[in-house]
């Protein structure tokens, strides 16, 4: 159950990105790099929202390049718009079991249980509009739990949250990924997020997504592109981390 | 407890509470409201109070009411029924010519009704290709006069509007929602249940209402294709009460029946409407992953093909039949064209001026009363223009020979009738400009006219140009009040066409139809373009 980007090339206007590597199952990968570098585009190509100009996306050695998003093995959380505002929290979550929402009583119970898991048991009948930003993403995570897809892609869904809340959400993601045994791909701008959850990091810069490197090692000896992205201030915590390992 | 300052009593307080702003806004806006009410309600009262014998409503009038409701319901139901799959197909398919088809949907709104009727007769009439095709199978030709013709013409004129309104509804669903449905693996049926039906619940009642009201008050279609005891509408009955029987009392009573009908329809439609709660998305054009099965594509292609042919065939007929006749246009055509423009251009200018004066007033009023005044502007549509016209004639009669005033009266009535449209187009733009730039302008010392000219008008030009184009084109094609009051020597293009068709001079009518069509399109394009010249203002 490996994700393979086989000589993949994405072109959008004057932007282009290439990727040629495999991601073994069950890993947790962070994607880091400058804005507009193509981190999201790589996830979108994997999830089926943009078509590559060349190359293939393989899942378990089967070509899924032309597949519709819905039949790919991927759950995706976007920065926002993860919920339908005219549906209740419970309905939004239940879509994870079956998108036509014709659920049996037992399945509705499972939906409630998933909401309880993410701490939203009391919010089930509310509309997303009255929830806080963190609660909305929790609801989307409960749906990820129910969809039970082998790959979870996060396109910065926690970017608008404060540091403490973000740490809390990452812990929840960690728990959910472990629970369904999924491979995690996570776009982030925050080096400490990568350090907190991802054992490997994919650097996306200069039109290339580079094969994953162990997160600790990558930041210990950052290549030029990462050094430029982080700047001096950004590097200091990692130097400290190496000098005094926890 | 005593307050140090006495609260002043009297009407000044009312104005102070309802309206925050300067006299520059209050006076023109207030004057417009007064003119609007005088023209609509005042003239109706004058007709009601006109001394003379009146027969009251008879059985034929009640039959006219039933026919009005029936044809409007059927026309609105068919228009909306076809518009749903058509708008869905346009929303989810990308094909060459899609932009042109969407533009084509805008044409019937400025297309003179009598030209549309001419084109429809050419295709669907007794001698048209549709009947010829039926003849091949040994079937009798289509009889277009009466209910079928009225409904056909109303669908032809309103299906494009319905499709555009519903397409706007589809476009209001953020692209991000479609992305999410795709990620969740939803097919056409689930996308329909999750996104499209909730949107339609919000948009359909309003769409249905607009078309219903347009069909209730429509006149030229019924004048040309309806008539007789079995296909007379309230509007046509009013016209006949005035023209054939000269019974102003009955005409005014019928006009009130029509207003009540419009109000009831409006209340019902509002009762059915549910707000859709889509969050605003980024304006990326939505990409869709559903509806890609062969069946869905086949249905979409079929619907789009049908709509395109339904609209294009009558229009092509007008052009093809009109071209050879351009060499032999009636002698008085150019004088008639001149009269048409002498009416249409002042109508557009007057209507824009009224809408701007009202918008300046409304954008500084409390939302509640502002909405009441905006709703009152719709009176110009709901009250029969014939009753308004008759009322103005009765009021003018003691002072001046009213038939010498046929053209000014037509201009006044058409301007008031266009006001709901121009206000709807200009008010949002005015409010936006006012909100963003009035304070900035005031901070550098602009006020009154300067503020309007430098800070607001440049941001309104685009909307004003569009509204002026629309109003002028509608007035060019108007076959309404003028039919009742024009002395024999005064004629507009639609009236000339109507007279030619009435005397079966179809070839001459074909030439006039083409001139009329081109005039309406050109005047719209010129005025609309005039508003867009400052392309850097968004």
Q: Can you offer a commentary on this structure?
A:
The complex is a heterodimer of chains A (246) and B (538). Chain A has helices at 39-47, 89-94, 105-117, 133-147, 163-180, 191-197, 215-220, 224-243; strands at 3-12, 15-23, 28-32, 54-59, 62-63, 74-77, 151-155, 183-187, 200-205, 208-209, 213-214. By secondary structure, chain A is an alpha/beta fold. Chain A has a domain at 80-148. In chain A, strands 1, 2, 3, 4, 5, 6, 7, 8, 9, 10 and 11 form an 11-stranded mixed β-sheet that branches. The longest helix of chain A is centred in the last third of the chain and has 20 residues, at 224-243. Chain B is mostly helical and 538 residues long. Chain B folds into 2 domains: 21-45 and 330-538, MetI-like (MetI-like fold, Orthogonal Bundle); 93-277 and 285-320, MetI-like (MetI-like fold, Orthogonal Bundle), CATH 1.10.3720.10. The longest helix of chain B has 38 residues, at 406-443. Mean pLDDT of chain B is 84; it is low at 1-17. The A-B interface holds A 47-49, 68-71, 74-76, 78, 80-82, 84-87, 95-96, 99-101, 127, 129, 147 and B 174, 176-177, 179-187, 189-190, 193-195, 198, 276-279, 281, 287, 289, 292.
Throw out a few tags for this protein.
heterodimer, A: 246 residues, eleven-stranded mixed beta sheet, 8 helices, 38% helix, B: 538 residues, mainly alpha, MetI-like fold, 23 helices, globular
| Rg from Cα of chain B | 25 Å
The major pleated sheet of chain B works out as: none
Helix fraction bin of chain B: over 70%
Strand residue percentage of chain A: 15-25%
Q: What Rg of chain A do the Cα atoms give?
A: 18 Å
Content-based structural category of chain A: alpha/beta
* Overall shape of chain A: globular
- Distance between the terminal alpha carbons of chain B, to the nearest Å? 53 Å
């Amino acid at each position: 159950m490996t994700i393979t980007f086989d000589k993949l090339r994405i072109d959008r206007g004057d932007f282009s990105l290439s990727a040629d590597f495999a991601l073994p199952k069950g890993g947790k990968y962070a994607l880091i790099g400058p804005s507009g570098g193509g981190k999201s585009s790589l996830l979108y190509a994997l999830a089926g929202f943009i078509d590559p100009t060349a190359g293939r996306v393989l899942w378990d050695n089967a070509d899924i390049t032309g597949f519709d998003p819905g039949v790919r093995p991927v759950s995706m959380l976007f920065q926002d718009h993860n919920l339908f505002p005219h549906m209740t929290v419970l309905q939004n979550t239940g879509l994870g079991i079956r998108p036509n929402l014709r659920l049996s009583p037992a399945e509705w119970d499972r939906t409630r249980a998933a909401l309880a898991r993410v701490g939203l048991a009391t919010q089930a009948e509310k509309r997303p509009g009255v929830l806080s930003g963190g609660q909305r993403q929790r609801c989307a995570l409960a749906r990820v739990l129910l969809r039970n897809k082998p790959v979870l892609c996060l396109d910065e869904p926690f970017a608008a949250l404060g540091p403490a809340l973000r740490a809390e959400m990452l812990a929840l993601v960690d728990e959910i990924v472990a629970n369904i045994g999924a491979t995690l791909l996570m776009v982030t701008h925050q080096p400490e997020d990568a350090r907190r959850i991802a054992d490997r990091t994919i650097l996306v810069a200069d039109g290339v997504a580079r094969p994953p490197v162990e997160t600790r090692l990558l930041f210990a000896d950052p290549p030029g592109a990462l050094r430029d992205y982080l700047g001096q201030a950004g590097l200091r915590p990692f130097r400290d981390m190496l000098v005094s390992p926890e | 407890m005593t307050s140090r300052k006495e609260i002043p009593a009297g009407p000044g307080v009312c104005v102070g509470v309802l309206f925050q702003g300067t006299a520059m806004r209050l006076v023109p806006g207030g004057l417009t409201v007064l003119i609007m009410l005088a023209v609509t309600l005042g003239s109706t009262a004058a007709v009601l109070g006109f001394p003379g014998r009146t027969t009251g409503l008879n059985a034929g009038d009640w039959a006219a009411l039933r026919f009005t409701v029936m044809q409007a319901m059927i026309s609105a139901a068919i228009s909306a029924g076809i518009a749903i799959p058509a708008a869905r197909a346009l929303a989810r398919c990308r094909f060459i010519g899609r932009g042109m088809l969407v533009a084509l949907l805008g044409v019937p709104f400025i297309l003179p009704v009598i030209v549309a009727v001419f084109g429809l007769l050419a295709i669907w009439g007794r001698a048209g290709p549709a009947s010829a095709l039926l003849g091949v199978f040994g079937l009798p030709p289509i009889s277009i006069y009466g209910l079928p013709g009225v409904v056909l013409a109303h669908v032809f004129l309103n299906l494009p509007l319905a499709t555009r309104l519903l397409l706007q509804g589809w476009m209001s669903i953020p692209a991000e929602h479609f992305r999410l449905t795709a990620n969740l693996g939803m097919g056409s049926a689930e996308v329909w249940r999750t996104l499209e039906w909730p949107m339609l619940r919000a948009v359909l009642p309003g769409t249905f209402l607009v078309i219903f009201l347009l069909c209730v008050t429509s006149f030229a279609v019924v004048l040309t294709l309806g008539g007789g005891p079995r296909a007379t509408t309230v509007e046509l009955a009013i016209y006949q009460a005035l023209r054939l029987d000269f019974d102003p009392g009955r005409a005014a009573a019928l006009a009130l029946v029509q207003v009540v009908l419009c109000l009831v329809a409006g209340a019902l439609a509002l009762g059915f409407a549910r707000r859709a709660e889509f969050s605003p998305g980024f304006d990326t054009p939505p990409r869709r992953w559903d509806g890609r099965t062969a069946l869905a594509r086949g249905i979409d292609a079929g619907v789009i093909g049908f709509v395109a042919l339904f609209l294009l065939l009558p229009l092509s007929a007008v052009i093809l039949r009109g071209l050879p006749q351009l060499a032999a246009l009636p002698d008085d055509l150019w004088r008639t064209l001149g009269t048409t423009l002498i009416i249409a251009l002042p109508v557009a200018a007057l209507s824009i001026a009224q809408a701007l004066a009202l918008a300046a007033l409304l954008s500084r009023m409390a939302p509640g009363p502002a909405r009441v005044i905006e709703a009152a502007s719709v009176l110009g549509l709901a009250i029969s223009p014939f009753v308004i016209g008759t009322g103005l004639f009765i009021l003018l009669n003691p002072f001046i020979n009213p038939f010498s005033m046929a053209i000014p009266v037509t201009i006044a009535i058409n301007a008031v009738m266009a006001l709901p449209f121009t206000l709807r187009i200009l008010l949002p733009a005015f409010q936006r400009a006012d909100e963003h730039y009035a304070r900035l302008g005031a901070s550098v010392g602009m006020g009154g006219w300067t503020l309007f000219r430098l800070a607001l008008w440049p941001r309104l030009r685009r909307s004003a140009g569009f509204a002026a184009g629309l109003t002028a084109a509608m007035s060019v094609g108007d076959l309404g009040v003028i039919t009742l009051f024009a002395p024999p020597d005064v004629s507009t293009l639609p009236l000339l066409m109507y007279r030619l068709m009435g005397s079966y001079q179809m070839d001459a009518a074909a030439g006039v139809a083409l001139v009329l069509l081109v005039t309406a399109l050109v005047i719209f394009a010129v005025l609309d373009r005039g508003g867009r010249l400052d392309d850097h203002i968004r």
